[in-house]
Amino acid sequence: MTTAIDHTGEKFSLLTVIKQGDRDKQNIIRWHCVCECGGTILTRGSALRSGKTKSCGCLGKKNLEMRTTHGLTKTPEWLAWKHLKQRCLNVDHPSYANYGGRGIAVCKRWQESFESFHADMGDRPSDKHSIERINNSEGYFPYNCKWATTKEQGRNKRTTKHELIDGVTKTRDEWIKECKWSRQTVYNRINRGWTFADAINH
């Protein structure tokens, strides 16, 4: 009979061998191991040496939980994360040309983990909110994203015109609501060559 390699005291990944155990049905010696989590396992020396067995089972459970059991799958937050990645990373997505196709990126943390996205952005404030990029020329990064209502997002579209007047920047619609003239009057003046500031102030 071949003499078994004595693994007592050796450490393999999260496991430390504490003593030799009985042979299994194939007459192969198994080893009693204690895991860093406190659990124990009885396994073959070959499984330890090859790396096939790395823990008492806790490592696999932890990885599975990280992938599937955060409890938020199919929630609005999870769907927002899924869809923003699709728009930016999937060349077959209908909206790719307006996102990934024009250089809109997703930060690596968010690409790899919904939990990171959720930790940075938190829960959606209401069913009227969705994810928005503060600067439309930049990508999906924590510093450049927020939850915003449809109305707020409308003010931030690339096609929305903003005007700087007396050091204050607002959308044209916001300025027009504050002036005494109708929208039609303002735009009639602009079409005749007036500046926007003159059109709302005179």
Summarize the model shown:
This protein has 9 helices and 8 strands. The chain has 202 residues and is of the alpha+beta class. The termini are far apart.
> What is the rounded Rg?
30 Å
User: What count of helical segments does DSSP give?
Assistant: 9
Could you say which structural class the secondary elements and strand pairing correspond to? alpha+beta
Distance between the termini: 104 Å
Strand order of the largest sheet: 1-2-3-4
Which descriptor suits the 3D outline? rod-shaped
The helix content, as a percent range, equals 25-40%
Question: Unreliable runs, pLDDT <50, ≥5 residues?
Answer: none
Estimate what percentage of residues fall within beta strands.
Answer: 15-25%
Write down the domain tally.
3
Mean pLDDT figure: 83
